[in-house]
Design brief:
The protein has about 150 residues and is mostly beta strands. It has one domain (about 5-150). It has helices at about 130-140, 140-150; strands at about 5-10, 15, 20, 25-30, 30-40, 55-65, 65-70, 75, 85-90, 95-100, 100-110, 115. Strands 1, 2, 3, 4, 5, 6, 11 and 12 form an eight-stranded antiparallel β-sheet that branches. A four-stranded antiparallel β-sheet has the order 8-7-10-9, with no helix packed on it. The longest helix has 9 residues, at about 130-140.
Length: about 150
């Protein structure tokens, strides 16, 4: 997958993760990176309408976190900070809530936006519409994304 990104700050009010697939969180110092497939977005420069459109592959990046709640339980605490809150649900993962200084949406330059959902796997009702090799690459290259993130610090 391409490791060049477009970065958008302060995105917590524009995203919808209720139908998303979330990968493992990667925590480094005071930052958290979350890979997401099928991220809903609206009322944003990427999709100015109030109807959701879906990004195939994306990363949520939380900088300067002070608290992380997993399934409503405090999991990680850090130092106090100016507070921003972002709630991340998903169709296969538990709830994640992050309190942090800044939120970013990182989109691979080859990312695609669709009016319909992206499915990484077959479901009882829908067939996968993403290439399985591309999905596996996305889940397994999260560490490489940190190089691109250094420009945000």
């Amino acid at each position: 997958m391409s490791q060049e990104f477009r970065a958008f700050a302060a995105i917590e009010d524009a995203i919808d993760t209720s139908e998303s697939y979330r990968g493992s969180l990667v925590v480094r110092e005071d930052s958290i990176l979350v890979p997401i497939i099928n991220l809903g977005i609206s009322e944003h420069v990427l999709n100015p309408t109030n109807k959701l459109a879906y990004v195939d592959f994306a990363y949520l990046f939380f900088k300067g976190f002070s608290k992380v709640l997993l399934n409503s339980f405090t999991d990680i605490k850090s130092k106090d900070t100016e507070k921003r809150y972002c709630y991340v649900g998903g169709s296969q993962a538990g709830d994640l809530e992050v309190e942090c200084n800044q939120t970013y949406l990182l989109l691979p330059t080859a990312g695609r936006l669709s009016p319909t959902n992206w499915y990484p796997d077959n479901t009882p009702f829908y067939k996968a519409n993403l290439d399985s090799e591309q999905v596996n690459s996305f889940w397994n290259t999260v560490d490489a994304v940190w190089k691109a993130i250094n420009s945000l610090k």
